[in-house]
Amino acid sequence: MGRHGNTLRIHFETDDLARTRILDKPDPLWETLLSLHLLQGSAGQPVFGEWRSRVRRSLDRSAGLLFALAPPRGYSVDFLTPGAGAGDLESGLDDVLGTPRSLLAADLTELAAARPLPSWAPSLAAGELDILHELGDAIRRYFSVAIRPHWPAIVSQARADRLQRGEIVVDGGVEALLSTLHPMVRWQSPALEIDYPVDQDLHLGGRGLLLVPSLFCWQSPVTLLDAARQPVLVYPIDRRPGWFAGGAPVQGVTALLGRTRAAVLDAICAKPLLSTTEVAAELGISLAGASQHATVLRDSGLIVTDRAGGAARHRPTTFGSALLTVSA
Predict the structure, then answer these.
(1) Of 202 and 299, which is predicted with more confidence?
(2) Which DSSP letter does residue 191 get?
(3) pTM for this one?
């Protein structure tokens, strides 16, 4: 039972476990929606406070349209996140602006049950082109201010999370992945139970579940209300105060760590599970030097070292990957 006495139950059939996968990077529209929730409140101030202040100073009036559709609490319209994995913002926007009128009307009716809607809501429910174009422009403007400057850092941290969860799948299978997804998640075969603001059931029915990593997802994983749409579960990834600095250019990391140590971190981020010997060979440094640099990086929380087959193999932590930008 959840924090509010409520639970989201995702019901799996045999085929659903085989069809469950993790998206290879965050979804731009989900990051847009969830960041809008955070922007309108004060949750996670140590992590999001500076980002929140910067974004609030930079927004224009078009953001008001988005705030109306994505309030900080309760239901947000599903059509803002029509799917996941479109690849880029424009592909996702094509899906948003192509939402059938019946779904626009249904989502806005659901939203209207909880709060008054602005005067333009009937025009949006009817799929009128002018308001749809205004919506598309508002999302683009918001994304350019709130998300795009930090996208490399967001992608970097999500990829580090995916790497770590991939190791869990290799060692324990999909059920182990689901069991360790988040502290508020419990695998009670054949259902995944999640502490949630409302009681909700999602029957996958053989469609599988797409797990979507998110930097802006706060406290609890989230899904769509409409069970007929693509089954997704968006879950929080690790992030630290100052995460928005994770997109700093490599030169900045070199100044911070020193040229050789930054190169060691870069090599481990590019090829996780490199052994110390392989790091030394790749960079043309001594084995003792590679070992010393790896020790410093490990003690700083930038890499983790595992023993496999008698060799020390290194992989980046979420913070280590975030510090060294990975191209989107």
Answers:
(1) 202
(2) E
(3) 0.75
